[in-house]
Amino acid sequence: MCRARFMMLGLALLQALAAHCQPMPQSTEAATALSNMRLLVGPVATALRYEEDDAAGLITQGPLDSERGTIHGTQVRLRWTRLARKDEAVPSVLFELGLRREKGNSAYQGYLQAGASLQPYRARSSERFAGVDVRLGVPLAADGPVKLVPYARYGSERWERGLAQYSEHFHWRSSAIGALIQAHLTPRLQVEFDLALGRIADAGIEVPSLNFASHLPGRRQRQVGASLLQALGAGILVQCSALRETHAAGQSSADSAGIVEPPSRTRRTRLSIAFGYEY
Question: What confidence tens digit (pLDDT) does each residue in 258-274 have?
Answer without folding.
Answer: 788 889 999 999 999 99
